C-alpha cells in the first residue's frame, strides 16, 4: 500500500495569511485563514505594504495553528508547499521566506506552487472522483482564464482577459454604485433584489480570439449609465444596476466556457477562484451544464477565495512527480500559468 503524503501548505499571495495540512492531495486536515478584509476596507482595496506587514505578524501563528488543528507535528510532514507566484511581491515573499526557513531548519523538502494551479486544484478537495482532463474557468480578482486541464500540472490556456479580470470589474463597479469593498460578494447580494434585465449592458466579443474576455467596456458602460442618470436627475436603482451588470458578466463567462467545452468535446467542467463563489454564476452554470449533460464541479466558497488547502492539493501532484525547489526559490509576481521556475 502507498505511503500517505502529508503536506504543510502556506499561502500569502494577496491579503489572506493562510496555512493548511493536506493528506494525499485531497483530504484537508486543517485549513487556517487569517483574512485582512477589514483592514483594507477603509482604503477601498488591498494596500500591498499593509498586506505584507500583516503577513509578517500572522504567518507563524497560522502555521502553528494549522499543525495544532491537524493534530500533527512538523516532523510528520513530507513536504512544505508555498505559493511563489503570481501575486503581490511583498506578500509572496513573506510566505516564501517562511517556507524556506522551515524547510532549511527541518530538512523537509520544499515545493513551490503556482497560485492559479492552486485554485484549479481546489476542485480535487471536495470532488474526490474528479481527474483530468477537463476544462476549468478561473475567475478571480486578478485573473480570468479558460483552461484545458490536460493532466495534473499540465495546462493549456485557451482564453484570457484582455483588460480587467472579472473580479476587478466587480470591485470597480461596486465602488461606483456605492457598495464599497470587497465588490464581488456585495454585488452578488444586492443583485438578488434587482432585475437583471432592467438595463442592457454590452457583452464584449474579442474578434481574433473567441475564448478571450474583455470587461473594461462593460465597466465603462456602467459608469456612463450612472453619469447619464445623474446628469438627467434620474433615480438610480442600485439593485437593478448590480443585477444587470452581474448578468452581463455571467452571460459572457457561460457562453465562452460552454463553447469551449463543446469544441474540445469534454464532459467535465469546473470553476475556480474568488468569483467562483458568486451564487448567480454557480446557478447559471448548474442550469446550462444540466441541460447539456456536462458534469459541473465547483469548490465550496471557503476553497474559492485564497486558502492554503488548495496549495497543498496542487503541491501533492508536484511532489509525486519529484518536483523539489531549492533555497533559491523566489517570489515571481507575474508568473504565468504552466510556467515552472
Shape: globular
* CATH evolutionary superfamily of the largest domain: ATPase, nucleotide binding domain
Strand arrangement in the largest pleated sheet: 3-2-1-4-5
* CATH topological fold name of the largest domain: Nucleotidyltransferase, domain 5
* Rg, alpha carbons: 20 Å
- Report the CATH architecture of the largest domain: 2-Layer Sandwich
- Averaging pLDDT over every residue, what do you get? 92
Q: Count every beta strand, where a strand is a DSSP E run of 2 or more residues.
A: 10
Low-confidence stretches: none
Count of helical regions? 11
How would you characterize this protein structure?
This protein has helices at 37-41, 48-70, 89-106, 115-126, 166-176, 183-191, 216-232, 238-264, 279-292, 301-304, 309-320; strands at residues 6-11, 16-23, 27-35, 79-85, 110-114, 134-139, 144-151, 154-160, 268-272, 295-297. It folds into two domains: 6-121 and 304-320, ATPase, nucleotide binding domain (Nucleotidyltransferase, domain 5); 132-300, 2-Layer Sandwich (Nucleotidyltransferase, domain 5). The chain is globular and about 65 Å long. Helix content is 45%, strand content 19%. The two termini are 32 Å apart. By secondary structure, the chain is an alpha/beta fold. The protein is built from eleven helices and ten strands. The model has no long low-confidence stretch (mean pLDDT 92). It has a five-stranded mixed sheet, with helices on both faces. Strands 8-7-6-9-10 form a five-stranded mixed sheet, sandwiched between helices.
Amino acid at each position: 500500500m502507498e505511503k500517505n503524503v502529508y503536506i504543510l501548505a502556506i499561502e500569502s499571495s494577496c491579503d489572506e495569511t493562510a496555512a493548511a495540512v493536506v493528506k494525499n492531495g485531497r483530504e484537508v486536515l486543517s485549513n487556517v485563514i487569517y483574512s485582512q478584509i477589514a483592514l483594507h476596507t477603509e482604503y477601498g482595496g488591498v494596500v500591498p505594504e499593509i498586506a505584507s506587514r500583516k503577513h509578517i505578524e500572522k504567518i507563524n501563528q497560522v502555521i502553528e495553528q494549522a499543525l495544532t488543528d491537524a493534530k500533527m507535528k512538523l516532523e510528520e510532514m513530507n513536504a512544505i508547499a508555498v505559493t511563489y507566484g503570481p501575486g503581490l511581491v511583498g506578500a509572496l515573499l513573506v510566505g516564501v521566506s517562511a517556507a524556506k526557513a522551515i524547510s532549511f531548519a527541518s530538512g523537509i523538502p520544499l515545493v513551490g506552487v503556482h497560485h492559479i494551479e492552486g485554485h484549479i486544484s481546489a476542485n480535487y478537495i471536495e470532488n474526490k472522483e474528479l481527474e483530468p482532463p477537463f476544462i476549468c474557468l478561473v475567475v478571480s480578482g486578478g485573473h480570468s482564464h479558460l483552461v484545458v486541464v490536460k493532466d495534473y500540472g499540465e495546462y493549456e490556456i485557451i482564453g484570457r482577459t484582455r483588460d480587467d479580470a472579472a473580479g476587478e470589474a466587480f470591485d470597480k463597479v461596486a465602488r461606483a454604485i456605492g457598495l464599497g469593498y470587497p465588490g464581488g460578494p456585495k454585488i452578488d447580494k444586492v443583485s438578488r433584489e434587482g432585475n437583471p434585465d432592467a438595463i442592457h449592458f454590452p457583452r464584449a466579443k474579442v474578434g481574433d480570439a473567441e475564448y478571450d474576455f474583455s470587461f473594461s467596456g462593460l465597466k465603462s458602460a456602467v459608469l456612463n449609465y450612472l453619469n447619464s442618470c445623474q446628469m438627467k436627475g434620474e433615480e438610480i436603482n442600485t439593485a437593478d444596476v448590480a443585477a444587470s451588470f452581474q448578468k452581463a458578466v455571467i452571460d459572457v463567462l457561460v457562453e465562452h466556457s460552454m463553447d469551449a467545452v463543446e469544441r474540445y468535446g469534454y464532459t467535465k467542467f469546473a470553476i475556480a477562484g474568488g468569483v467562483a463563489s458568486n451564487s448567480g454564476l454557480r446557478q447559471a452554470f448548474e442550469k446550462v451544464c444540466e441541460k447539456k449533460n456536462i458534469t459541473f464541479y465547483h469548490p465550496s466558497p471557503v476553497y474559492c477565495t485564497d486558502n492554503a488547502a488548495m496549495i497543498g492539493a496542487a503541491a501533492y501532484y508536484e511532489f509525486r512527480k519529484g518536483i523539489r525547489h531549492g533555497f533559491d526559490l523566489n517570489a515571481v509576481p507575474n508568473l504565468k500559468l504552466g510556467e515552472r521556475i
